[in-house]
Amino acid sequence: MTGTRRTVAALFLLPALVLLGALVVYPIGYSVVRSFSNASGDGFAGFDNYEALFTDDGIRTALKNNVLWVVFAPTVSTALGLVFAVLTERVRWGTAFKLVVFMPMAISMLAAGIIFRLVYDQDPDKGVANAVWVGVHDTFARSSAFPKAHPGRESPLVPRAGGFVTRAAVHAGRPVALPLVGVAPDRMPDGAKRAAAAEPEPGRITGTTWQDFTRGKGVGRPGAPDPSELGYAGMRIEAVKDGEVVATATAGGDGTFTLPAKADGARLRLPADNFKEPYDGVDWLGPALVTPAVIVSYVWMWAGFAMVLIAAGLAGVPRELLEAARVDGATEWQVFRRITVPLLAPVLAVVAVTLMINVLKVFDLVYIIAPGSSQDDANVLALELYRKGFAEGQPGIASAIAVFLLLLVIPVMLFNVRRLRREVRR
After folding, report:
1. In angstroms, rounded to a whole number, what is the distance separating the alpha carbons of residues 363 and 371?
2. What integer pLDDT is reported at residue 300 of this predicted model?
3. Does this model's pTM top 0.85?
4. In angstroms, what is the C-alpha Rg of the chain?
C-alpha cells in the first residue's frame, strides 16, 4: 500500500522477528519437545508426562485450584470494577477514589504477596485481618484474661471440669481466700487493683481472689494478699450446692466479692470460662482458607484494572438512553440492569477474559502468601510447574504442564482478540 518493497519491510521487521523467535517461538517449541522426553532428557517418554497431569496428586490439586481461580477471581474483580466505575461517576471525589483503588496495580506481585502475608498473620498483634476479626469477636464474646491461672501449693482449690472448686463448703461470716498463680503481672487486666483482704459480713459469703505472687525471693506471705499483689478483676465465682448454682458474683478490681446468704454451705467454683484461651482469630492461611485468602489479594490488586477499563467503556455509553429510561419511570437499579450492563457487555467480556488469561498464569501470590505447611493445598499449575522443574528435578513433567497451560490460554486469547477486533470495526 505504501510502495515499500517487501524486502525492505522484511529487513525492518527482522529484529522484531528474531526477538519473537528467540523469546517465544523457540521456548514453546523446545517445551513441546521436552514434554515427550524423560527426566534426564536423553530418552523418549511418550505421553507419560501428560499422563502424570491427571494422576499426580499435586497436579490434580493444582488443576482444581486453577478452576476456582478462573471462576471466582475474574468474576469478583470484574463485578467490583463495574460497581466502582458506576458509583464513582456520581460522586465529586470519584477521581480520588479511582486513584486509590487503582494504586495496587503499581505494586509488584512480590510486594503484594509480602503485604498480604503480614495481613493474614495468625497473631492478632501483627495480622490486620485477625486483629479486626478478634476485635469483633471480643465485642460479643469476651475472652478470659486468666488463661494460665491455676492454684498454687496448699491451695483451697482443686481442679474440676476445666475450672477450680473449693475443697470444702464455705460459710457466712468467714472470709474465703481463693489465691491463684500463673498470670504474668503485665498480663493482668487493666482494671486490676491491689488485692484487699475481704471483711466478714454477717449472713453473707465474702472473699478475695488474687494473684498470689510477689516479685523477689522470700517476700510475701503465701495464701494472704500482699501490698504488691493484684486482684483478679472480673473473675466469675459461682456458689454450687447439690450440683446446682445457687448464686454468682464477679470479683471487683481488688479481687473481693460478696455472695448472698443462700450461698451458705455451698462450695465455691471458678468456672472454666474464666480460664479459656483467648480467641486468636481465624487461620486464614490454613489448608481450608488459603486459596480464598490468596484470591482476595489478587482481587485487591486487579479490581482497579477492571474499574479503569469499565469506566472508559462507561464514558462511551449514550447518556440520552439513560435519561430516557429515567423519564419513563425506570428506577436506578432498572437503568443499571437493563441498560448500563447490556451496553457494557462487550467491555465486561474483554475485562473478564483478560483476567482469566492472567489468572491461569498466577504464581507469585501463591508462592509468597501460602506458607510451606499449606502450600500444597494452595497449589496452582504455574507453581506446580516451578516445583516440578526446579525443586523436584522433573523437567519433562514441568514442560508438559507448560504446554497444557498454553493450550488452556490459546482459546481464551483468541476469543479476546476476535472481540477486540470486532469492537474496532464498530
Report:
1. 14
2. 95
3. no
4. 34
